[in-house]
Design a protein that fits this description.
The complex is a heterodimer of chains A (152) and B (301). Chain A has 152 residues and is mainly beta. Helix content of chain A is 12%, strand content 38%. The N and C termini of chain A lie far apart (44 Å). Chain B is globular, with a radius of gyration of 19 Å. Chain B starts with 15 loop residues before the first helix and ends with a helix. Chain B is 35% helix and 15% strand. With 301 residues, chain B is α/β, with parallel strands linked by helices. Chain B has two domains: 98 residues, Aspartate/ornithine carbamoyltransferase (Rossmann fold, 3-Layer(aba) Sandwich), CATH 3.40.50; 153 residues, Aspartate/ornithine carbamoyltransferase (Rossmann fold, 3-Layer(aba) Sandwich), CATH 3.40.50.1370. Classes of the chains: A mainly beta (152), B alpha/beta (301).
Chain lengths: 152, 301
């Protein structure tokens, strides 16, 4: 039987696989890949053994650094990041939930001293009853991941 | 050896040993006046938000230890008015003074100040977040009146959602094997994150709707103010009576029960309670001096 790919291959860049279905657009926003002219292939609601349905992002010419991988992991803790070189997988990185995240999301508490300034934003990340929670280093308030502002 | 204290920002930064050192030092200072331990030191009282008790008791504590006090009493007479950031103000003041006592309306301000300050910071209240020195005073008063902390039953009454003293004190109580009772209107329950924190620390707690349900079970009754503006006009008079303590209610309580309140009180503790053996809120306020003396001495020596 012929194996077909539902999204086309890339030569050099990054493939983010095993993204929970419905989360790929959030991750695209977070990584700000739309603001540059990368070739992007997006797969939504693909069949998956592990997740039953998954999203997938392929970015030609872009390698994610550790901080960017942490941002992806916050929304897709079970994702795999494949680094592609000359059309083959050069490195396969299984993500895990980071313990802290800096300067990515402004604190949702309007009374927090960080005053929506991203440069001070600093959250401690924890998992409680299957929810991903972020506690602000400054105002000590705790938020659910879904309360973060992720659109540009 | 106790890890030495460098700042007092949040109860969550303190370990049991440090808390015991603070309580022990305050007890010593209460028994015998410590004298001029800080005679060549300068304390900056930086109150960006108005306060009476906290500010005066810090000033008195510093003066009794022989330190000089500088500072301001509201954001209006500081250069905040000119648009200076908190970080810049603190950086500058930390070169004038040996220690900064900070009250600010923004949550997390003390933590932010600590990061830029060359000198120790004491958080004297940051918005609805923390008021760690008040919580230490409350704990000191509990230990003083009950001779122990482990195994105590504590009742918290009033606004448990927005009261920062409650938040800091509940975190402190979780370090001891206490049984906690929470009495509040449904709209002012203890925040979820604190409930989770108590569960995580295996502390037993329960929720109640009226003060009379728990009175006979507790060793300490911690009362707080119910703010009228948080309720609809017709709701307040009905609710109020479930959360008001009167001398009649104290008829069949444990003999060692003490009533605490961070003050100012409005009408949640009836004045008939003042003359009973259970009233301890004015002594509790007086303890503020010893705890603050202890903190200043421990941070500066």
């Amino acid at each position: 039987m012929q194996k077909t790919r539902s999204v086309s291959a890339i030569i050099a860049g990054t493939v983010i696989d095993h993204i929970p279905a419905g989360t790929a657009l959030t991750i695209m926003h977070l990584l700000r890949i739309l603001t540059h002219q990368y070739s992007i292939t997006l797969g939504l609601n693909l069949n998956s053994h592990r997740l039953s349905l998954k999203d997938l992002i392929k970015i030609e010419g872009r390698i994610l650094n550790a901080s960017e991988r942490d941002q992806v992991a916050l929304f897709a803790p079970k994702a795999t990041v494949n680094v592609i070189n000359n059309g083959v997988v050069a490195q396969k990185i299984k993500l895990k939930l980071p313990q802290q995240i800096h300067a990515v999301f402004p604190c949702p508490n309007p009374h927090c001293c960080t005053g929506f300034e991203m440069k001070y934003s600093h959250f401690f990340i924890s998992e409680f009853h299957k929810k991903i929670l972020l506690t602000c280093h400054y105002c000590e308030q705790r938020f659910e991941r879904e309360q973060l502002k992720t659109s540009i | 050896m106790t890890e030495s204290l460098s700042h007092i920002i949040s109860i969550s930064d303190l370990n049991l040993q440090q808390i015991q050192t603070i309580l022990h030092t305050a007890k010593q200072f209460k028994q015998q006046a410590p004298g001029s331990l800080l005679s060549n030191k300068i304390i900056a009282n930086c109150f960006f938000e108005p306060s009476t008790r906290t500010r005066l008791s810090f000033a008195a504590a510093a003066a009794r230890l022989g330190a000089s006090v500088i500072g301001f009493t509201s954001g209006a007479d500081s250069s905040i008015q000119k648009g200076e950031s908190l970080q810049d103000s603190i950086k500058v003041i930390s070169h004038y003074a040996d220690l900064i006592v900070l009250r600010h309306e923004q949550e997390g301000a003390a933590r932010l100040a600590q990061e830029v300050s060359a000198k120790p910071i004491i958080n004297a209240g940051d918005g609805a977040n923390q008021h760690p020195t008040q919580a230490l005073i409350d704990l000191f008063s509990m230990a003083e009146t009950q001779t122990r902390l482990d195994g105590l039953a504590i009742g918290f009454v009033g606004d448990l959602k927005y009261g920062r003293t409650i938040h800091s004190l509940v975190q402190l109580c979780a370090l001891f094997t206490m049984r906690l009772f929470f009495v509040s209107p449904p709209a002012l329950l203890l925040p979820d994150y604190l409930c989770d924190y108590l569960k995580y620390n295996k502390i037993r707690f329960s929720f109640h709707e009226r003060i009379s349900d728990i009175l006979e079970k507790v060793d300490i009754l911690y009362m707080t103010r119910l703010q009228k503006e948080r309720f609809a006009a017709d709701e307040y008079p009905l609710l109020k009576y479930k959360f008001i303590l009167t001398a009649d209610l104290l008829a069949s309580v444990k003999p060692q029960l003490k009533v605490l309140h961070p003050l100012p009180r409005v009408d949640e503790i009836d004045r008939t309670v003042d003359s009973t053996q259970h009233a301890y809120y004015f002594e509790q306020a007086a303890n503020g001096l010893y705890i603050r003396q202890a903190l200043l001495a421990l941070l500066l020596q």
